[in-house]
Design a protein that fits this description.
single chain, 5 helices
């Protein structure tokens, strides 16, 4: 028959062998890359678990410090109240300036709500109400400052002192 048929068969088999060898090599490279990726994912998972463990420890430590954190926030807010009670009774007319009451918005009481809730829901409610009173006092002071710039007679602090007294009374009720 044909003398070239066995040669063609040999060439096809050699081509298939080269293809199989190339495929095996590529599969080996993919397997190694996959193994490295799996190892990296495992290490990342281990690091995440360790991070979660440390966060849990930190959270548990802070839970134990909750009453102290709330007391410190209340003391800071009371200091603000003392300062602003004085400022509310001494509103200056132009050209003197008045201090910015923005600090009354940032009393820190809302920052410790999670700790206050762990003490009691009533404690959290008192902090929210005290913070609202401080914000109302801030608003009243801003109105008084605006009025002092427009008027020639002595300005009144509005209801700012009452709001400050209300906030102080709420904080005096205590939280822990």
């Amino acid at each position: 028959m044909c003398d070239w048929l066995p040669v063609l068969n040999f060439i096809v088999q050699c081509g298939l062998f080269v293809g199989l060898t190339w495929y095996t090599f590529e599969t080996y490279k993919i397997r190694n890359a996959t193994q490295r990726s799996a190892d990296a994912a495992t290490e990342a998972a281990k690091a995440s678990l360790e991070n979660l463990r440390l966060l849990k420890e930190s959270y548990e430590e802070r839970i134990g410090q909750g009453p102290q954190i709330v007391r410190e926030a209340i003391q800071r807010a009371k200091s603000l109240i003392v300062y602003w009670k004085y400022e509310a009774t001494h509103i200056a007319q132009p050209p003197q300036g008045n201090p910015d009451p923005a600090a009354l918005n940032n009393s820190g009481l809302l920052d410790v709500l999670s700790h206050a809730r762990q003490i009691s829901p009533e404690c959290a409610k008192l902090l929210i109400e005290a913070n609202a009173a401080l914000m109302n006092a801030k608003s009243e002071l801003e109105k008084a400052y605006a009025a002092s710039r427009k008027q020639t007679f002595l300005p009144t602090p509005g209801r700012a002192p009452q709001y400050l007294e209300q906030a102080e009374a709420l904080l005096d009720k205590g939280c822990g």
